[in-house]
Amino acid sequence: MPMYLPDGSRVCAFVFLLGAISQGALAFSQELPDAPSVVQNASFSSTEGSDAASDAPKSPDTTSPGSSDGKFLSRWAKRGLRDQAGIYTAPFHLSELGWAIGLPVVTLGLIAIDKHASGALSRNGINASTDITDVGLFATAGAVGVLLLDGETRGDSHALETGVLGAEAMANSGLVYAALQLITERQRPLHGTGRGNFFETSGLDNSFPSGHTIITWTAASMIAHEYPKLWVKWLTYGTTTAVSVTRFTSLQHFPSDAVVGSTLGYLIGRHVFHAHCKAGLSAAYSAKIAQENTVSISRKREVTDVEE
């Protein structure tokens, strides 16, 4: 029997996200108050400068528990809105020009051949492909949960940050996924005429983009950025690539659905990492700091030479 249950799979994933975000938010607020990040242009460019000011650690006060809870929720709501604003405004920033042009071009090209690609697939391996996608989804998202719990249990700030930011990034991806699903309303390969027509369905169980790929690539992107070791990248991105391919071979999505979901997931994970990571935890952060400092020093020398 195949593992795939369209509704049950999504419900389980949603429950996991809610639990991870709730636990992560609590741990994050107690152990890892946001610190200023000097990385502003390495990911989705956004107005993150105000993030440090609003999220800076506060001195102890005597406010009531109810008031503290209200401030806590308000802080995270504002943080989420800033993340969403950064994601949606990213295509308008020069640093993201390549992605802003390349992704739509590739997507339009794939949409043109989607129906032919899906029509050429055999129906024999659908169940196996579907099982692989579900295993990949829960393994990758589950890794974020494991890191979060491990960080809380052992007091490992790096693992805790990975779990918290991974859950936060997946929540952001979920919002983007829902918005695109409601806007595009695309039929799945095995629905309707099989041509993947847009604006033909309703709800959140449509084809564009792939929910499995956007969530798995978001989680993998966060883990790979937090632990930028070669074997980690091979493991995380290899797993997510398998998910992307099997979403197509299981005839749950067209190629364009999988590519868009994968790309957005990677970029959102990268964005949240650079927006909220803490100095001294990830080697990727430290390397970026060194690169930014080198560029800054070079520019200062150029200005000095011109003035002289």
Integer count of domains: 1
Number of strands: 0
Find the structural class using helix and strand composition.
Answer: mainly alpha
**Strand coverage percent:** under 5%
Brief write-up:
The protein is mostly helical and 308 residues long. Helices cover 72% and strands 0% of the residues.
Quick tags:
single chain, 308 residues, mainly alpha, 10 helices, 0% strand, disordered N terminus
3D structure, described in words:
This protein is mainly alpha-helical. The protein has one domain. The chain has ten helices and no strands. The chain has helices at residues 6-31, 49-55, 65-89, 97-119, 126-154, 157-184, 211-226, 230-249, 255-276, 283-307. The longest helix has 29 residues, at 126-154. The protein starts with 5 loop residues before the first helix and ends with a helix. The model is unreliable at 1-8, 29-62 and 292-297 (pLDDT under 50).
Which SSEs are present, and which pair or pack?
Elements: H1 6-31, H2 49-55, H3 65-89, H4 97-119, H5 126-154, H6 157-184, H7 211-226, H8 230-249, H9 255-276, H10 283-307
